[in-house]
Amino acid sequence: MRPDPASSAAIDHVVGTFPRAELSAALAATHRAGFGPQTRVFDGARGDTARQLERAGLRVLDGAPPPADAVLIVVTAPGRTRIVAELFQRLGAAAVLLAARGGDDQPVAAPPAALQPDIRIGDAGVASES
Q1: For a Cys staple, 99 with which of 36, 58, 65, 92, CB 3.0–4.6 Å?
Q2: Best CA proximity match to 20, nearest among 69, 80, 82
Q3: What angle, 0 to 180 degrees and rounded to 10, lies between the N-to-C axes of helices 81-90 and 23-30?
Q4: 70 and 17 in contact (C-beta within 8 Å)?
Q5: Given a cut of 80, is residue 127 above it in pLDDT?
Q6: Is 40 helix (H, G, I), strand (E, B) or coil?
């Protein structure tokens, strides 16, 4: 079952597999849509794309990993994965996959409460150095 892009805070990347001949047009459209600074290209000509995704710390959550020689456009899009997935489908992606940073598909834990230092003012019970 395909994960719902809105169902988990951990799903924050969209991976589109594009025909090499369509890469330039798809990449330009991705930039025009405002996702340029969050966009990376993974090219199977430079090595196995699944391994490249792994080195980037990404884990594909749905479907089979992309073919080793695929050309991928990867967009970091927390909160906007549905928008990017729909864009990639309109641009003619051969496959659109959802990915997350390595680890479990769990929302990021809340940060711990601020720690308060134990600072005592005065000399209550503290020996002075005289």
Answers
A1: 58
A2: 69
A3: 140
A4: yes
A5: no
A6: strand
Whole-angstrom distance, CA of residue 85 vs CA of residue 87 = 5
Q: Can you list the domains of the chain with their CATH numbers?
A: 11-101 (3.30.70)
Q: How many residues does the chain have?
A: 130
Backbone angles phi, psi at 45, to 5 degrees: -70, -15
Distance in angstroms (rounded) separating the CA atoms of residues 117 and 48: 50
Q: How many CB atoms lie within 10 A of CB 8?
A: 16
Dump pLDDT digits (tens) for 41-82: 999 999 999 999 999 999 998 778 888 899 999 999 999 999
Contact 66, 49 (CB under 8 A): yes
* Phi, psi dihedral angles at 100 (to 5 degrees): -140, 165
Dump the DSSP string for 45-84: GGS-HHHHHHHTTEEE-SSSPPPTT-EEEEEE-TT-HHHH
Non-local CB neighbours of 124 within 8 Å, separated by 6+ positions: none
